[in-house]
Every structure is written in structure tokens, then in C-alpha cells.
Design goal:
The longest helix is centred in the N-terminal third of the chain and has 21 residues. The protein has 5 helices and 5 strands, in the order αβββββαααα. Helix 1 packs parallel to helix 3 and helix 2 crosses helix 3. The chain is α+β, with helices and mostly antiparallel strands and 154 residues long. The radius of gyration is 15 Å and the shape is globular. Helices cover 46% and strands 18% of the residues. The protein has a 5-stranded antiparallel beta sheet with strand order 1-2-3-4-5.
């Protein structure tokens, strides 16, 4: 599959992922892995984290996290992953749906987006990255209620 952005922008994404998520991984006492050309991630004792540029009509950048099972490894699992923006919203009450799909990505906006996603995990999901007692079930239940509310408004 082709990369979702042109070469120079993918290089900017890769550099930003290595910088911001590489440091986050180090702070979690692990290391960043390249999963695919558009996906990086790491695992802790209790979580799997990914940062990716997602394909679409307009590419989007998003970090995701999930609780780690014994046989788990670093990859994107849309059925279990929770976007970093949900942790921000739960903690702050402010809707933060991650980085929008965007036609006008630049090297600077990509760097800012990746930095924002790493900051969101560090600030609002740190316990989920490192604490085996983090309330994953409560987080998933809360998120499902929010999704249902959003669907009812449509």
C-alpha cells in the first residue's frame, strides 16, 4: 500500500514520531518500533501505543492506546484501540477528537500534530501506559456512552 502522504511529508511524520514518541517510549522504559511506513509504536508491560498517518480521502494523524494482553504485540487493532483524544476528553470534559483529516499538511503541522498526540498521552493517559490497575473497562464504557450520545444528536 502506498504511503498516505507525499514523500517529504512522510519523512516529516517519521522524524516527528521518532522524536516525540521515541521519547515517550524511553520515559516508559521501552523503545519505539517501526510497524509500517506510516505506523510507529511501542509496548509497555500494560499497554500498546501506536502513532500513525491514516489513509483516507484526507489523511489524518492519530495516536491510539490499548491494554496489552499477554500475546499482544505492536500493531493497530481498531477493534480495541482507543484514540488519545478520548483520554483528553474524559479528563478535561473538552471535546478533543484528535487531528482532523486535513488537506493542507505541511512539515510543521505534521510535527505539531505528532507532538500534540504524544503530549495528550503523557498528560491524560499516563496511568494507562504504566499502571496495571488503570480502569480500562471504565474507560471503554465511558467512551461507548459518549459515542451513543454523539450518534443520538445526529
Amino acid at each position: 500500500m502506498d504511503d498516505p502522504l507525499k514523500f517529504t511529508l512522510m519523512e516529516a511524520f517519521r522524524a516527528a514520531a521518532k522524536e516525540y514518541f521515541g521519547q515517550l517510549a524511553i520515559d516508559c522504559r521501552t523503545s519505539l518500533q517501526k510497524v509500517m511506513s506510516n505506523v510507529y509504536g511501542f509496548e509497555t508491560a500494560v499497554a500498546i501505543v501506536t502513532i500513525a498517518v491514516y489513509h483516507g480521502h484526507r489523511p489524518a494523524i492519530m495516536a491510539k492506546i490499548r491494554n496489552r494482553t499477554p500475546s499482544d504485540h505492536v500493531y493497530v487493532d481498531d477493534s480495541r484501540d482507543i484514540a488519545a483524544s478520548w483520554f483528553v476528553e474524559r479528563e478535561t470534559g473538552q471535546t478533543a477528537r484528535g487531528m482532523p483529516e486535513y488537506d493542507g499538511w505541511t512539515e510543521q503541522t505534521i510535527d505539531e500534530a505528532v507532538q500534540q498526540e504524544a503530549s495528550a498521552l503523557r498528560t491524560h493517559a499516563w496511568a494507562y501506559l504504566n499502571d496495571k490497575t488503570a480502569d480500562w473497562d471504565g474507560m471503554r464504557q465511558w467512551r461507548e456512552v459518549q459515542i451513543a450520545k454523539n450518534m443520538a444528536r445526529r
